[in-house]
Amino acid sequence: METLTLSIAAVLLLLLASILWRLRHVQGSKTKNRSGSLFELMKNSHRILDWTTELLHDSPSGTTVTFMGVIISNPSNVEHILKNRFENYPKGSGFTSVLSDFLGSGIFNADGEHWRLQRKTASLEFSTKAIRAFIHSRVRLESVSRLIPLLSSAARSGEQLNLQDLLEFFTFDNACQVTFGHDPSLLSSPNDDDPLSSDRQFAKAFEEAAQLSVRRFSHPFPFIWKLQRFLNVGSEGRLKEEVAKVQAFAMDVVQERKRKRDRTGSLGDDLLSRFIADNDYSDEFLRDIVISFVLAGRDTTAAAISWFFWLISTRPAVTDLIVDEIRSVRAKCGKTMEQEPVFSLDQVRGMDYLHAALAESLRLYPPVPLQTRTCLEDDLLPDGTPVRKGQTVMYSSYAMGRTERIWGQDWGEFRPERWLEKGVFRAVSPFTYPVFHAGPRMCLGKEMAHIQMKAVAAALLERFEIEVVDEAKEREKDLGMMLRIKGGLPVRIRERMFLN
């Protein structure tokens, strides 16, 4: 079997070399501009976001055609594919097949009627006051009982912490509680790596499966990873093992929840319970929903808050204004931190400057910086760019957040004031700022994400001064399922001094 695998690999290498030579010959004979060619893509694969941003900035229309497909940063084009011609631009099988082993037919990897069915149910659940209160209560509990005590201990000992890791444990615990009512308690003992713990096995397998699934996108030719999957070798063999662990855990959760319903006639307030109560879905369908919603709630918020703390670490004036706002809200509520460790929903909503600072951070470092769609039928974008049937169209929220045409000459400055009008936060068009996507697939958890980010940031900044180690050093980006800080965010914690 090993000899056969090596022989096939050798043939594939020769085939790939032949394809690359032919592409170079054809492209070289047709055009002198090869900025978006396969060779440039391979050369810039380690900096794909900045490379595509440079291509878009050089384009008068904010659109560029590359080996990967059409990449857009023009708000009119974004509105065209995400709203006006929504039906013509699904995610497409080219995208969904990459994540199908991990996410199955869950909402974030579905198109057409299958997506509409899930979206309708999820929309109803996310629009209720009960789910908002439930999410906030989980954030409150996790903050008060775990995150704040952990940081207080580090402040006393002088211990250096990786804040991004802690926030990922925090959001994983919350995502599991909100999605299926189970608390993995990873943040309770963040340095524990007990191999016998089913929760930690699930978390580890989840992380591995997510990273290995994303690796498929790095292959310029899909047949490479598909052949590896067929042969069950390399990263595809590992992916199969990790996905099996994740699915087994999620299936156990689904079946136990159904047994509880049959035994007691009652269910919880989590999303899984609501899906079970409202519909007669199969176990496999519910399993995929569990995995999808854990993924959505796990890394996006952690990544966003990590980038936020790094950005404000070198901007004391911004930090002071945020702390002043937090103290003003504290003074109005008439309760001390001991009496009310985490602010209420209404209090969090009233923190406009904090909201603006988080929006500014998301503008520069969106958790999902590049999104793809597939063109079903030949089309013409508003800027005159033709799109062929089957061609991939990508919109870059990362590039759009760094575009002078949209944000002005000071686009590179971290300036929360650009989001404020007479001190009140004012949102912009989602087609200009598609951090939470836009159109019919607008993120259902947008408001919940803001509440969670603001509640956590307010609770930490009220109590602690967070000093980022090597704060002036540019942080390298780690683009996987989400845009994370490569190597994490090492920090030192100090109790904040209060002056009367």
UniProtKB/TrEMBL annotation:
Residues 1-28 form the signal peptide. The keyword Cytoplasm does not apply. Its cofactor is heme. GO terms for molecular function: heme binding; iron ion binding; monooxygenase activity; oxidoreductase activity, acting on paired donors, with incorporation or reduction of molecular oxygen. The keyword Oxidoreductase applies. GO terms for biological process: lipid metabolic process. Belongs to the cytochrome P450 family. This is Cytochrome P450. It comes from Dioscorea zingiberensis.
